[in-house]
Model the fold of this input.
Amino acid sequence: MPAFLTDDWFTTVEKLSADAGDLNLPPALANLAINLVVANADNTTEVSLESGKIQKGLSPNAKTTLNMDAETLRKVFLEFDMAAAMQAFMTGKIKVQGDMSQLMALQTAKPSQEQKDLFKRVLEHTA
Done:
């Protein structure tokens, strides 16, 4: 299993995303693009969440950038732990740049079962 946020991990995520096909997303998530800058002690990784899928690199379509650590990214975006998201935001572990309304869409929209299944498979393939 590839380590989280490594090139091998992104390759695995790309394949799983392609295999998942249509994620049947609600419009709020289907049209959402957010950049994620993940900083750890030794490096920074640029990621985007666009059309319900995690991708390597920043999206030119994103109006919002979230800065966080890898543990927070994993809990919030792979495990859909909204309590962790709120706690991270309140304690400053998530910093927001840009359009805050994008976060409201993310908070209120419910992921489809297909998206949940995809992220569950991604989590199963993450060391």
Q: What stands out?
A: The chain has a mean pLDDT of 90. The CA atoms of residues 3 and 27 lie 32 Å apart. The helical segments are 7-20, 27-30, 70-78, 82-90, 101-108, 113-124. The chain has six helices and five strands.
